[in-house]
Amino acid sequence: MAPAPSTYSVITLNVNGEKYTLPVDHRTTLLDALREHLDLTGSKKGCDQGQCGACTVLLDGRRAVSCLQLAVAAEGRAITTIEGVADGEQLHPVQQAFLDLDGYQCGYCTPGQICSALGVIEEHAAGWPSAVTADVRPEAGTPSLSAEEIRERMSGNLCRCGAYVSIVQAVAQAAETHTAQSHTTETGTAETGTAEGRSDEAKEAAA
Ligand code: FES
Ligand code: FES
Q1: DSSP conformational letter for 87
Q2: Which pLDDT does position 112 carry in this prediction?
Q3: Would the CB of 104 count as within 6 Å of ligand 2?
Q4: Which residues contact 37 (CB under 8 A, 6 or more apart)?
Q5: Together in a domain, 55 and 106
Q6: Does residue 195 share a domain with residue 113?
Q7: Which candidate, 112, 117, 73, 110, places its Cα nearest to that of 93?
Q8: Is the CB of 163 under 6 A from ligand 2?
Q9: What is the structure's pLDDT at 183?
Q10: Is 38 found in the same domain as 107?
Q11: Which residue, of 84, 118, 139, is where some domain finishes?
């Protein structure tokens, strides 16, 4: 009689640029591996069934709900959690925008919101349309990241505190900063405006 197949494997996860080798039950989700095995508790468990976005991380730069991802399937991929977003003590512009514009209340959904916002900004910069993009023809170009676009693109991230108005403002501000930094990198010019000015524009965009 053949031996029963093992339900455990030793895997190596690449999280925030660090490699972690750990034994996991094959049924372990990436969220549980992060939180329970690696003690990276920034990613939150809200619903544990792909409905709330609290567990959002980036896999190879794209958004994923880690409660629906098996840890064994994440081997070999670059995993970014909220713990890996800042550059040392320097907050990422998306984190700074959430701080500047009060994009949270209790903060439970915030790590997922920020990781999702990172994905949104990259997806938008790459020209991806959303469900509310009026003209999806390639020749129409990239839609502006309006409040409506941000709400649709962030709609997988729920906030029980209802901080949505500030979250939309924060994503708008972070997207502006990203665009300005990209422009600076491309042209070598520094034309970013003031943080205060950007906040005002972000508020107008979300109004
Ligand atoms: S905990 Fe993963 S989507 Fe809610
Ligand atoms: S800030 Fe409390 S759930 Fe979003």
Answers
A1: B
A2: 98
A3: yes
A4: 20, 22, 24, 28
A5: no
A6: yes
A7: 117
A8: yes
A9: 64
A10: no
A11: 84
Could you tell me which of 190, 191, 176 has the C-alpha nearest to residue 100?
A: 176
Ligand 1 atom with minimal separation from the 67 CA: 2
**Residue 204 pLDDT greater than 70, yes or no:** no
CA of 125 to the centre of ligand 1 (A): 26
Q: Which residue range is the domain that position 56 belongs to? A: 8-84
Spatial CB neighbours of 202, under 8 Å, sequence gap ≥ 6: 97, 101, 169, 170, 172, 173, 176
The pTM score is 0.87
Which atom of ligand 2 lies at the shortest distance from residue 161's CA? Answer: 2
68 CA to middle of ligand 1, Å?
A: 8
101 lines ligand 2 (CB under 6 A): no
What digits encode the pLDDT tens for the residues 5-45?
789 999 999 999 999 999 999 999 999 999 999 999 999 99
Query: pLDDT class for 185, splitting at 50, 70, 90?
Result: low
Residue 180 has a pLDDT of: 79
| d(CA 174, ligand 1 centre) in Å | 24
Pairwise CA distance, residues 97 & 38, whole Å: 28
Question: Is residue 79 domain-shared with residue 107, that is, in the same domain?
Answer: no
Q: Same structural domain for residues 139 and 77?
A: no
Ligand nearest to the CA of 34: 1
Give the residue whose CA is nearest to atom 3 of ligand 1.
50
Mutate to test the pocket of ligand 1, among 32, 35, 44, 55 (most ligand atoms within 8 A of CB): 55
